[in-house]
Amino acid sequence: MFDSKPLNVLFLCTHNSARSILAEAMLNHLGKGRFQAFSAGSSPRENQQPNPLGLETLRKAGISTDGLHSKSWDVFAAPDAPHMDLVITVCDNAAGEVCPYWPGQPATAHWGYADPSEGNGSDEDKRLAFTQTLHQIRRRLELFTNLPQASLRGMALQEQARALARS
Taking residues 46-54, what's their average pLDDT? Predict the structure, then answer.
């Protein structure tokens, strides 16, 4: 049995085009109503869009891409924004930046992943990089979504999320 209110999780990256988008979609896919995932970037480029290879990778994995779009983390610092229970940085750049004040002081963690959109390899190499990153995100999120409900509140949530960074 779990609380009827889902746990809100915000995934942060610099541009909100690859890793944070993959994590948002994957957690919403695996969360089964226990979790509501969001994503944002510390400095998305003007007219930033999710990386097309990321969207392709999600679709091939049977994960919905509906509603995915790049946005600034400022959206989630606004007074009318949903309350976040957990904020996870997924790239090293965002982890080192000064984050906005998050209302309610959510738990925080850093789960670093290599950027699948970097590199000048072939299209097949790039697709493989996105698939590998999605697999790494999925593995960690499967562990996270299977934690007991008691592990997902207050300081226990932060401890569990940070411990998963080492898995």
Answer: 92
Strand partners, 89: 12, 110
Range of the domain at 62: 7-155
Going by pLDDT thresholds of 50, 70 and 90, the confidence category of residue 94 is low
Asked if 79 and 57 count as a contact pair (C-beta separation under 8 A), the reply is no
Average pLDDT over residues 13-41: 95
* Top-confidence residue, 132 or 105: 132
Residue 114 pLDDT greater than 80, yes or no = yes
Number of CB atoms found within 10 A of residue 163's CB: 13
Sign of CA dihedral 66, 91, 16, 12: positive
165 is a domain residue: no
**Hey, is 119 helix, strand or coil?**
coil
Q: How far apart are CA 66 and CA 11, in angstroms?
A: 17
Which residues, including other chains, have CB under 8 Å from residue 29's CB and lie 6 or more apart? 63, 64
Which residue carries 């995915």 as its tokens? 68
Q: How far is CA 72 from the centre of its chain?
A: 14
- The whole-angstrom separation of Cα 148 and Cα 24 is 21
Query: How many distinct structural domains can be found in the chain?
Result: 1
CA–CA separation, 67 and 71 (whole Å): 12
Q: So which residues are the catalytic ones?
A: 13, 91, 99
